Amino acid sequence: MNAMKRAVAALAAAAALFLAGCSSGGPAEDDASPSPTGKGKVSDIRGITLPAWNADDYKRPEAATYLRQIAATGAGWVTFTPTWYQDRVTDPAMRVTDETAADDSLRHIIGLAHEAGLKTMIKPHVDLVKGGDRAEIRPADPDAWFGAYTRFLTHYARLAAATGAEQFSVGTELAGTSRDGTRWRKAVAAVREVYHGPLTYAANYDEYRNIPFWDALDVIGIDAYWPLGDRPTTDTARLRRAWQPITDELAAFSAAHHRKILFTEAGYVSQRGTTTAPFSWTVSEKPATDEQAAAYEALLAALDGKEWWAGVCWWMWDDWPDTGETAKRLAYTPHGKPAEKVLRKWWGKSSPSGD
User: Fold this and answer.
1) Helices (H), strands (E): how many in the chain?
2) Residue pair 167/120 in contact by the 8 Å Cβ criterion
3) Residue 122: phi, psi to the nearest 5?
């Protein structure tokens, strides 16, 4: 999510109108229509994101446990998010910091994921050192920024190719740059020179209609944080009705662009009001695991069986010990909460893992 570790997402609360390790409601398969340009298929992705906040998170002892827990929900995919940072939204380049997952740690956890039977998506992020919304990044020198960004992308694309990562995202919620189709197409072409799997871009729910380069990618990626109402609710039927105009629009968008749509992120904190602002880490201080679970149920039920839907990658599994700034009882993780039971129901895993 664009508010990685420190930032509180502050996206416009627009009305509800909206690839790797992620979910749809039918049988657990990986069959799909052929990807238009990349090798591989993108469909019925069901999985969970495991972000990193520090250089060695992906090599921590908990890594293997987290992956077993993710697989035990019935997920088939896991997404990893190595992140580079820039100080200001106008900077000409991004850089590694001590919060960037080290390459050896990323290689390590991809190997562990494959051992656990999970497919992987690498989804590199760019964030701001002092927090804030990455959608506000608007470089003063676009040529310099895109040159640096292409080097950033191809670094991870080579790593993805070397480790056998099954899918790659060329960006996440960079709305301040994503209308620049010419420069983005060049960046995508550079990635394709070194990585031959399916490619996506993770557009925010209020950004995806403005992306001019979907035809250069294999699947449309959307971070699906639409508000589903103006007041908290645990009424699953009401939440499903809120999805109806969104899914109608997405069906038409998919048909117009001849691409399936993957929810590259979707998630809800276990706080009262999360359905009114799914993008917020701090919508309230009142725990509401029942509202989180209702939101999970409504999304999976509303999207189940949609032929244009490639799946969902939930944000997110547990934080690493001593790194999360949101208490687990209030955080996005479904682990150990009713939302995990919802995942198991839809993904075919009925009993807890015990981890």
Assistant:
1) 7, 10
2) yes
3) -95, 125
What domains appear along the chain, each with residue ranges and CATH number? 45-346 (3.20.20.80)
pLDDT tens digits for 144-162?
999 999 999 999 999 999 9
CA distances 248 to 113, 173, 294, 295, Å, are 35, 22, 21, 19
Q: For 229-250, give the DSSP string.
A: -SS----HHHHHHHHHHHHHHH
pLDDT tens digits for range 4-58? 433 433 333 333 333 333 444 333 333 333 445 676 678 899 999 999 999 999 9
Residue 342: which residues within 8 A CB-CB, separation 6 or more?
293, 296, 297, 300, 334
φ, ψ of residue 80 to 5 degrees: the values are -115, 145
Q: Which tokens is 107 given?
A: 């290689």
Element housing 70 (H / E): helix 62-72
Rounded Cα distance between 309 and 220, Å, is 10
Six-digit token pair at 333? 């993780």
